[in-house]
Amino acid sequence: MLVELKEVVAYYRTPGRIPTKALDGAELTLSEGEVVGLLGPNGAGKTTLMRVMLGLMHADSGRVSVLGLDPAKHRHSVVRKCGALLDGQRELPPRWTPLDLLRFVGASYGLSELMIRHRAAVLLERFGLAEHKNAVINSFSRGMKQKLSLILALLHEPQLLILDEPTLGLDVEATREMLDLISSFASSGCAVLISSHQLSVIEQIAHKIAVIHRGKTIFQGEPEALIRRVGRGRVELEFDSFTTQFAGALPDTVSVTGHRVTVPLDRDSLALVLALARRFGARLIDVSRSLDFENAYLALLEERTDPHVNLP
Question: The pTM is what?
Answer without folding.
Answer: 0.79
